[in-house]
Design a protein that fits this description.
Length: 262
Amino acid sequence: AAEPWPENAALYQQLKEEQILLSDNASSLAVQAFLQMCNLPIRVICRANAEYMSPSGKVPFIHVGNQVVSELGPIVQFVKAKGHSLSDGLDEVQKAEMKAYMELVNNMLLTAELYLQWCDDVTVEEITHPRYGSPYPWPLNRILSYQKQWEVRRKMKAIGWAGKTLEQVLEDVDQCCHALSQRLGTQPYFFNKQPTELDALVFGHLFTILTTQLITDELSEKVKNYSNLTAFCRRIEQQYFEGHEKDSSTIAARSSKRSLLR
């Protein structure tokens, strides 16, 4: 049986307006979408030092009772242990397929977001460094930004992305969107009638890409080429976030800039 969900459950992320970056915003929104789909209320708390508060050093993380859990995968497992699951209705083949698509999103979309933030020189100078270091005084703001940049670039080297051009990265994003678009087809969700954690993950990344102002629109244009994916984002926004915005005002705030619901 499902355990009662505490009323004071909280999700922590960086400051919304001035600090959080595309990839962390996407990851946070994916977790919020997952919890909304499970009908588990959560309060979003923004902290400048959220990344350093997290047990894994990554955001978002949730604080439920006396437990602290970070990132979507472990949060899904934690929620499942409490008796709430979105993918129980899937058979083993479907579960394996869902995992494969989630890997694809993490390997392609999340990595592309990190590449854009930390490896594209114009974006780094104009957006990433000013935002990432914004809560801290000089020179700490620059030191922390360069430290993070070095860490991400080392990861890109390890996975073979360091030598890629921006065009190649955008092509990877397009291929990922093409695969997702084909899998979704005309269904409301990836596995037909009910959302799963894959829907939450895809929504988190695509919605954030569509509504985040970057140096150019090249990244969001890749997603906009697939009308079923933009319709999917609109559908989840309307169903799970509109009218729930007293706590999770992420979408309300960002939509005012560039709403999908025009």
